[in-house]
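Human:
Class, as today's exercise, you are to examine the entry below, and be ready to discuss the fold:
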Amino acid sequence: MTSLLDIQHLSISFGGVHAVQDVSFGIRKGHIHAVIGPNGAGKTTLLNLMTGLYVPTRGEIWLNGENIAGKAPDALALRGLSRTFQNLRVCMNMSAIENVMVGAHLRLDSSLFAGLIPLKEAKTRDRECRYEAAALMRLVGLEKYVTSHASHMSYGALKRLEIARALAARPQLLLLDEPAAGLNRTETAEIDEVIRQVAESGVTVVLVEHDMRWVMNISDRVLVLDHGRKLAEGTAEEVQSNRDVICAYLGPHEDNRTS
């Protein structure tokens, strides 16, 4: 199967610390990929490299045949990469639907010329954007918050709101940094359903997550990092049975907990 994104020999160092070391793997189109590993393994650093927040010391990142390593985040967003962050980045002084509409700004014409379009046309465009944002909120299970202010939403709902905002950019690749962090079982199940629906819609998903059980249940492919290096890659079953993964991530006495 053809890869949507290919990572080749990716590395980055901060001073004398090798945060990511010679990592190579592929992201298959239409799949849910997970990146796991112990604390400090380099998971979020890898995500930051993939989304242009960090420039690699060496290596290449190929998206649809183009090397995008080191390109700015806004340039990557225009090429179909969208992401959420580990910590909430919701505009709490805005309504829920306005937060989602913000995600569409990169694909909308915001030039000076666009600002001179007739008022009627501008209102039509705004109405269409609002309608699409409402549809995305329904997709992630937030239909009851369409007319709500962001400050009135629960933490779990805000996590899904960020996904809706990321989808407003119409990405082909969605990267999620610990989407289930801080959620209870019910909220995690809701995020699970959202991610599955996103993947079914044709958007490829890459997620960084600490919840081992959840990752193994939802992911088509799993990449395991340890001290910035690729430790293993494969299906959930292959990774769970890998002795190096059991020792590095779960500990030598955790064999039975992955079943």
